[in-house]
Give the backbone structure.
Amino acid sequence: MKMWKLPKITSDDVVAGNFIYADVSTLQDCTITNTTAVFTGLGWVLTFTIDGTDAAESRANAQLMVDHLLPLMLQYNGSDANRKESQKVYELWKGLDTPGISALTGIEKTGDLGNAIVTLALS
């Protein structure tokens, strides 16, 4: 098990003190739509709702989120991943707010910097 701790995001803001935990070692699928980046594993779905000034920018931002997260998730994926990592919780964006996450991932909403990540939900 390789647990990731992600901040819960609603209404373009990190919700202080609220976190989502997902075992990324079971990642199975990743899907992009015009407004979402969705990662699916055994028993969990992480859904990022992504914004932009138009559909093309929203989709490009969703792709940027996938481009940022997928290589990181794959490092923790499967049974051959480093055993020591299974004994820790990886805090992906510790201390960052949505503008900080946007800057790290390259996501940008034209004219409204830092507000392109609308929500992050676990189901």
